[in-house]
Amino acid sequence: MSYKSNILTVNKKIYHNYHIKNTYLAGIVLEGWEVKGIKYGKIQIVNSYAIIKKQEIFLLGMLVNNINHNQDIDPLRTRKLLLNKNEIKQIKKKVTEKKLSIVPIKLFINNRGYVKLEIGLGKGKKSYDKREDIKKRDIDRNLREGLKNI
Fold first, then answer.
1. Which of 122, 90, 121, 117 is nearest to 26 (CA)?
2. Which of 10, 37, 73, 137 would be 106's cystine partner, CB 3.0–4.6 Å?
3. Could you tell me the end-to-end alpha-carbon distance of the chain, in angstroms, rounded to an integer?
4. 14 and 118 in contact (C-beta within 8 Å)?
């Protein structure tokens, strides 16, 4: 995709903690100070997640720090995600049937200048799954290093 150069933040631990099944692109309802803070990189999505209320999806726990410190605002406020009605129905169906979580993967600015969020539907990994992934990664790294030395 063409948005890779405009990535603002990535949830690096997402693939370590979840088996991601599907991904969706969503817009976010933001206030002016939030857009400014996001463009300056004052954002954190590591501990955030999304919930479905009625026929809408909301993002909780996304931290956007304020650049103007003279205002009294909530940096962790709940933000609405903008998705197509059919996408929301698909997500709601998959979340309820398969007991998946909605988690943010990356935040970026698209070509038109809008802030977009890539969300994923994932199932949490158990600790033994995480250990197996670490083992596989170490084995692959050792094999690559061994081939470079030959």
1. 117
2. 10
3. 36
4. no
- Looking at the chain, the whole-number percentage of residues with pLDDT higher than 70 is 92
3-class DSSP state for residue 60? strand
Burial of 137 (0-12, 13-18, 19+ CB in 10 A): exposed
Cα(105)–Cα(118) distance, integer angstroms: 5
Please give the Cα distance from 101 to 32 (Å, whole number).
29
Q: Nearest-CA neighbor of 80 among 110, 44, 53, 41? A: 53
For the residues 47-67, what does the mean pLDDT come to? 90
d(CA 120, CA 129): 19
Distance CA 80, CA 88 (A): 12
pTM, entire model: 0.78
Q: Which of 65, 64, 63, 53 is nearest to 102 (CA)?
A: 53
**94: Cα within 13 Å, side-chain hemisphere:** 18
| Domains with residue ranges and CATH for the chain | 4-125 (2.40.280.10)
